[in-house]
Design a protein that fits this description.
- The chain is of the alpha/beta class and 545 residues long.
- The chain has 19 helices and ten strands.
- The protein binds adenosine-5'-triphosphate (ATP) and magnesium ion.
Length: 545
C-alpha cells in the first residue's frame, strides 16, 4: 500500500474535524467535578441560590453540548471510517484484478476473499478508540495535575493502585488475545469446511456421504463453541477483577476522606471532585494497558493488506494495436509453471494470417498452455512470441486480448441472463447480432425453448445449463466479439455431431479471413485445415503443411 496516511490525507477535512471534536469533548468533561466541589464547599455554605442555579444550568448546558458533539463525532467517525475502508477495498480489488494469472494459480478464492475482508481490521485506525488513545495521555496528565492540586497525599495513595490496575489489565488482555486468535483460526476453518461441503454437494450426494460431512461440520462447530465459551468466561473474569481493583481505589479514597472530613481538614466537595477525577485516571490507564491488544489486529491487518498492494502487477508492454493481421510466431519457446519444470520445450512455428490450424495431442501435453502464452496470460521463460511481427512483451495486453476471441476449455458463465453472458464480449452489440451469433453457434434452438429465452438466469457458473449448452453459449460469445484471431480450446468436445459440422462451417464462412486455432481430441475433417500440429510432451510436430 502506498501508505495508509495517504488515504487519510484525502479525507483531511473529516480527520481534522473529528480530532478537534474529540479534543473538545474531553476538555468539556473536565470542569464538571470541579464545579461540583465549588457547589458543596462555597455555594451551599453561603446559601447563594442564584449562583447555584447558574452553576447547575451551566453543568446542564455542558452536558447538552457534550451530547450533541458526541453525536456529531460519532457521525463523522463512521462516515470517515466507511469512506476510507471502502476506498481501500475498491483499490485492493482492482489491484487483485491486475495481478498475473500465475498469482491466482497458487491462491484459493475463499482465501483471497478473506484477505479483502481483512481491510475491515484497518478500521481501528479511523475509529474513536484510536483517537481515544491519543487523547488519553493528555487527559491522564491533566487529571493527575488537578488531583495533586486537590490533595497530594491522597493522590499518592490512590495512584499506588494504578500499577496493579495496569498489570492486571495487561495480563488479561494477553490471555484474551491468545484466545481470540484461536477463535479466529477456528472460525476460518469452520467457514472453509462449510464452503467446501456446500460446493461439493453433488459429489456428497452421489457418494451418499451426507452423514460423514455433517459429522465433520458438527465437530468443527463444537470446537468453535468451546473456544467461544472459554473467551466469554475469560472476558467476564477479567472485567470483574479489573473492576474490583478500580473500586478498591474508590474505597481507599472514601475511607481516607471520611476520616479527614471528621478531622475537619477535608471538605465534602473536595471528596466529590477527587473521586470523579480519580475515575478519569482509571480509564486512560486501562486504555494504555490495552494498547497492544487493541492495536495488534489493526497492525496485522495493515501488514497483510500492504503485502497485497505491493505484489507485482501483470507486466504490460504498452504498445496499443487496433487491428491484427493474425500472424502468430513462436521462436524456440520454453515455458513451465513454477517449479514443475518445462511443459513447453523449444516450440517454434509461424502461423500466417487467415490460416486455419488444428492442434492435437494427448492430455497434459501443453496445448492449452500454448494458447495461454499467446494471450499473454503467462510469460515464456525463454524464446520469443511474435504477434503480427511485434514482440508480445512490447504489446498492450488488453489491446491484444481485445483482438482475440477465445473459447476456453474451462468455461465460465456469470450468474446472469443468457443475453448478458453473450454480450460480455461486446456489450454494445445489437439485438440482431446476438441472434445471429447464437444461430451460428447452434445455441438458438435451446434458448428458444427456455420459458424466459434470452432472459434466463444461468445459475452459478452456468450450472442450470447442460455442458454442451454452456459450450454453445461460449462459442456465441466468441463469435459476437468479431476479432482477428479465433482460438477454440476443445470447442467440439461435449457437442453433438451436428454441431461439429457447424464449427467446420463457421471456419469456412464466418471466420474466412481470420486466423483460427482449434484444439481438439476428436478426429476432424483435415480438409478444412491448412495446417495440423501435434504436441507431445511439450514438443511440436507438424503433420500437415
Ligand atoms: N496453472 C497451472 N499450474 C501448474 N501446472 C499447470 C497449470 N496448468 C497446466 N499445468 C500443467 O501443464 C501441463 C500442460 O497442461 P495443458 O493444460 O497445456 O495441457 P493440454 O494439452 O491442454 O491437456 P488437455 O488435453 O487435458 O487439455 C500439464 O502437465 C499440467 O499439469
Ligand atoms: Mg487443454
Amino acid at each position: 500500500m502506498k501508505n495508509i496516511f495517504s488515504y487519510i490525507r484525502n479525507f483531511w477535512f473529516y480527520g481534522t474535524s473529528v480530532f478537534l471534536l474529540m479534543l473538545l469533548l474531553s476538555l468539556l468533561a473536565l470542569p464538571t467535578p470541579y464545579l461540583m466541589k465549588y457547589i458543596f464547599d462555597d455555594v451551599i455554605p453561603k446559601k447563594d441560590i442564584k449562583l447555584l442555579n447558574f452553576i447547575i444550568i451551566s453543568i446542564f448546558g455542558i452536558q447538552i453540548l457534550k451530547a450533541f458533539l458526541s453525536f456529531l463525532t460519532n457521525y463523522l467517525f463512521s462516515t470517515l471510517n466507511q469512506e476510507i475502508l471502502t476506498k481501500i477495498k475498491k483499490d485492493l480489488f482492482s489491484k487483485l484484478l491486475r495481478l498475473p494469472l500465475s498469482f491466482f494459480d497458487s491462491q484459493q478464492s475463499g482465501y483471497l476473499l478473506s484477505r479483502i475482508y481483512e481491510v475491515e481490521g484497518l478500521g481501528f485506525f479511523f475509529s474513536n478508540s484510536f483517537l481515544r488513545i491519543l487523547i488519553a495521555g493528555g487527559e491522564f496528565l491533566f487529571c493527575l495535575g488537578i488531583l495533586f492540586y486537590l490533595n497530594w497525599r491522597l493522590t499518592a495513595i490512590s495512584i499506588s493502585i494504578l500499577p496493579l490496575l495496569f498489570l492486571s489489565t495487561r495480563a488479561y488482555s494477553r490471555k484474551i488475545r491468545k484466545i481470540s486468535k484461536e477463535l479466529m483460526e477456528k472460525n476460518a476453518n469452520l467457514s472453509k469446511r462449510i464452503q467446501e461441503s456446500l460446493s461439493g454437494i453433488e459429489l456428497i450426494k452421489s457418494f451418499s456421504s451426507e452423514e460423514r460431512e455433517g459429522e465433520k461440520i458438527s465437530f468443527s462447530l463444537e470446537d468453535y463453541k468451546e473456544a467461544n465459551i472459554k473467551r466469554s468466561i475469560q472476558f467476564s473474569l477479567s472485567s470483574e477483577i479489573v473492576g474490583f481493583i478500580g473500586s478498591a481505589g474508590g474505597f481507599i479514597v472514601l475511607w481516607y476522606s471520611g476520616w479527614k472530613i471528621v478531622e475537619g481538614s477535608f471538605t465534602l466537595g473536595t471528596y466529590i471532585a477527587f473521586s470523579a477525577y480519580l475515575a478519569k485516571l482509571y480509564g486512560p490507564t486501562q486504555i494504555f494497558a490495552n494498547i497492544g491488544l487493541s492495536l495488534q489486529p489493526a497492525i496485522t491487518a495493515l501488514k497483510r493488506v500492504s503485502e497485497l498492494f505491493e505484489l507485482a502487477e501483470e507486466k504490460d508492454g504498452g504498445v496499443k494495436i487496433s487491428k491484427l493481421r493474425g500472424e502468430i510466431e513462436f521462436r524456440d519457446v520454453y515455458f513451465g509453471y513454477d517449479s514443475k519444470g518445462d511443459v513447453i520445450r523449444g516450440i517454434s512455428f509461424k502461423i500466417k494470417p487467415s490460416e486455419k490450424v488444428l492442434i492435437q495431442g494427448p492430455n497434459g501435453s501443453g496445448k492449452s498452455t500454448i494458447v495461454k502464452l499467446i494471450l499473454g496470460l503467462y510469460k515464456c521463460r525463454k524464446g520469443k512470441i511474435l504477434i503480427d511481427g511485434y514482440d508480445l512483451e512490447t504489446l498492450s495486453l488488453s489491446s491484444l486480448r481485445e483482438r482475440i476471441s477465445f473459447v476456453s476449455q474451462n468455461l465460465f458463465l456469470f450468474n446472469e441472463t443468457i443475453k448478458n453472458n453473450i454480450l460480455y464480449s461486446r456489450p454494445d452489440a445489437r439485438e440482431e447480432e446476438i441472434v445471429e451469433a447464437v444461430k451460428l453457434s447452434g445455441a438458438y434452438e435451446f434458448i428458444k425453448n427456455l420459458p424466459n429465452g434470452f432472459d434466463t438466469i444461468v445459475g452459478e457458473g452456468g450450472k442450470t445449463l447442460s455442458g454442451g449448452e454452456r459450450k454453445k453459449l461460449s462459442i456465441a460469445r466468441a463469435i459476437l466479439k468479431d476479432s482477428d484471431i479465433i482460438i477454440f480450446d476443445e470447442a467440439t468436445s461435449e457437442l453433438d455431431s451436428g454441431s461439429e459440422e457447424r464449427i467446420e462451417e463457421l471456419m469456412k464462412e464466418r471466420f474466412k479471413g481470420k486466423t483460427c486455432l482449434l484444439i481438439s481430441h476428436k478426429p476432424m475433417n483435415p480438409d478444412i485445415f491448412d495446417r495440423i500440429f501435434r504436441i507431445e510432451d511439450g514438443v511440436l510436430k507438424e503433420l500437415k503443411k
